[in-house]
Amino acid sequence: MPRRTLIRSAAFADPCDLSTDELSLLSVETTDDFVTNLLSRTNWNGGALGCLSATLTGDNCRVDAATFHLLGKLWTNKNINVTSLWPTQAATTLSLTIEDLSIFTFPDNSMVSNYVSSIDLQFFFSQAGVILEEENFSLAGVSDFCLRAYVYPTSDAYAKVVLLLFPCDLAELSTNPLYLDPRFPGIRLKEVEIPLAPPPLLSPVEKTWGFPLICAIFPGSDWEDAPGCALGDSLRSTLAELLRSASLPDAKANHDSYLTRLAELAGNEDSLLSKAPTLFWPPAVTAPVPAGPTLVTPFCPEAVPGASKYGPSGLFTSQSFAYLTTDSIVASTLSHMANHSITRNTWPTYQTANRMLKLCFDSRNTIVSYPLSQGDLLIFISWLNNRGLSPTTISSYLSGIRLIHLTAGLEAPDLRSDIVSQVLTGAKHINAVSIKSKPVRMPITPTILRLLKLAISRDVLCPPDCRMYWFLCTLAFHGSFRMGYKHRYIDSYKIRLSINTDIDIYKIRLKWRSIEITTDLSRFCSQQFEARFGGTWL
What we know:
With 538 residues, this protein is an alpha+beta fold. Helix content is 27%, strand content 19%.
């Protein structure tokens, strides 16, 4: 089962209530009022669009239900090959027009629409450019049909609409006792991604409220008769539950698989499948409780199952275990497990090793042959060294080559033979005495920190800036320690610092805003410093 991902957005932050005046600004009587009221500031071009609405109780103080709405134009004379939809003998095309998506109505608190009969749609079938008359449908192998829309959010501002086709009229479809269930199967017709609107800042209320969308309000009574109250948490919660209820359809690819699935469901309601989208809407964010005396609950950390350090993305596939088993399920399980043996951050390094190996042999106009021979391995090591790679990087690439063999279903050769170890050891010795392109940075020890304090105090900066620089230095120094390095009770400790005598000048450069100071530490440095501290330092 694929991992589900929570939809995240800054629009979920800072929840607040909508006042009764703001709720009245969002009030509508019918969906026809959406354009003139809810969408009046969005510059809508009439294309396919998804909106939300909430129906209030009679006193306008509570949310009774939330509803999803499709609006706008989808297709005009959309030509669809019906080969997978009906068992036709000749090439047949369905030309379908959906000028107004509001023909798909959604029950309260559901993201699956009611059925739309072809009687209510503009369509025609044609064969070889000739439009078929309705009385010839059965001879051509086609029939009346029904459509149903499934909607699920893909982000805080977009949703995907999946249209299923049912190759019979609504009267025949209703004879199946399961046809009203959202899990009832159909044939996939098309799917489109549409925007959700309006965002709060482009709505009549013109403010954020802790939810990416603003909904239309169907009041339970006239606002003068029932003034109601401000709504926030309950409105966000109801809308979030509606979007979180979205499910994937049991969509079949063709007519044959559709009939097979219906036969499986005959008299067996338990065979209906529930499929959740990989992206799902987060729970509603509640507004902060007004300040006042509250009971403080001690913080208690909770364990989170799983770990982000490892994951299923790797180089192992079912083919990696084809020589061990012919069972595809076993091979898939083993590859999934093996991909978790390496951290997510290490896989790219091993993939780079494979790419570098191919570059090496491409430069020699030869082809890599697996398993890699000892001679080819030494050629690769020499090529990497000539490119300026460090022995540590070369060693990591060898580990990658070993893994490449395993993912290809091959036994890895001896990549750490005596001769390879000797060559890498020699490379480390050469690397240790070679001239580095970058100067070696001095470690910041307590002695250097004291020198920095002295240099900053003698600078021409004003006292506040001096204190600021000293604060940054001490913060960076103590923040760089691991927890194991710190101890609360240190009676005394001794620091020794050796400085290269070939370097005549030591400079520390600090930058803040437009101010930059460079301090020469050579006056304070000698060949060796020794400092002893007792008790607490600084």
